[in-house]
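The freezer alarm interrupted the setup, so I double-checked each line after restarting. Inputs confirmed:
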Amino acid sequence: MSFLSNLINGISLGSVYAIIALGYTMVYGIAKMLNFAHGDVIMIGCYAVFMTMSRQGWPPLLSVAFAVVVCTALGMIIEKIAYKPLRRATPLAVLITAIGVSYFLQNSALLIFGADTKSFTSVVAVPPIKLAGGALTIPGTAIVTVAVCLVIMVALTLFIKKTKAGQAMLAVSEDKDAAQLMGININGTISLTFAIGSGLAAIAGVLFCSTYPSLTPYTGSMPGIKAFTAAVFGGIGSVPGALLGGILLGVIEILGRAYISSQLSDAIVFAVLIIVLLVKPTGILGKKVSEKV
Amino acid sequence: MAMLEIKDLEVYYGVIQAIKGISFQVNEGEVIALIGANGAGKTTILQTITGMIPAHKGSILFGGTDITRIAGHKIVSMGMAHVPEGRRVFSQLSVLDNLKLGAYSRKDKSEVQKTLEMVYQRFPRLKERKNQMAGTLSGGEQQMLAMGRALMSKPRIVLMDEPSMGLSPILVSEIFDIIKEISAGGTTVLLVEQNARKALSIANRAYVLETGNIVLSGDADDLLHDESIKKAYLGE
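Predicted 3D structure, all chains:
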């Protein structure tokens, strides 16, 4: 039973990684850049919930909605100020800028909220489910996390397949110039991608902090890096890849911690990543890039 | 009045001047060919017209409106479509989704279906393969898709960049027949081609480009029989 409960915790953590990974993978797919500040947007979302819910006593759902709005706006502002001017710059310049934005967000949070660890109150009020006569308990947070992840995946897939904006995203991700010739506003599409990714980051952050309730200005960076790993693991640029990569990563991390070594769990995660990339450099579901002449 | 008028256009790639102050015009209903060797600047001109590359100097007037500085994505809804060099279809999307993206800028949803039927009529092959991924089409089919996709925006003028590139002689003739049909249907065509003979055979007028300058222009029939053109571009 402890294996099953570990597995459930792994899937739950993996669902959070998957939601964060969506932000990395969508932005990479469309703007062809790695937004290393994405993890810190999560942290800002957590503070938005903490300040409104724990300090001001707002109802949890309202706080989460507020955090989504804050992060969506933040993502769009970051894109507009930091990345848009670099549209024709070298990838290295964009990468360094992203790292700079990441530090900027961390230090801004340090300045505004202080360095002390805040104790995050879970936003989830769903009671745990007891199975097998109480031998197996599924925490309410895990249920909500997995459910939210699945809803987001289905909604996002439908959005991309069925809406005009979604089709525009696919077109931009494949060929910006050709997309512009169709009348698609490239800057608008990139901005929308950042908005969606950052809004999802807020949700992921709230779910993460509901399970692991200590909040500091550095809270976002580790899940950010893990989710980036998950995106690469599943195949960067692929939405189902983000889901698969995230869940596998979460499960490997939790099982590794439980059965091999709690100190080595992160090392195990990255070792598996290295092995997968050696065997399949594009990630599990990554598309083979065929050069067209 | 000219439908499309280019005045003293200059374009730079970094420090290199690709277009050195050219002027030409396209009248309604015409098929105009831009011919010239590789690197003469033909593609650059088309890309500057549809806003993919900024103009350094000069102006581009479309239907009397100055579009020189207008954002590229706004130009298609003004009635100008561009079939880019190398087809550039969205290979990961289905044929139908590619065609729908062609109508992205249109607001008249009910009319789009009619245009789709018309495009299918002109390119029956695309209808047969509408659910297939565009990347799995042959070169000729991809060219038809790129042209069909451009027609989906219901353009008044189509810019076509090297539509015959990389195609077999039979397909080249088929593509040029289609261009003639598009023109006969009332759409103005600005055609860039390396296959000068084919281009001149369907064009009304033509401009000959050499390293960023127009060196010769005139009726396509006259150019087809011009000794210097024959020597330089027709391989006689």
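Quick read of the result. The mean pLDDT of chain A is 92.
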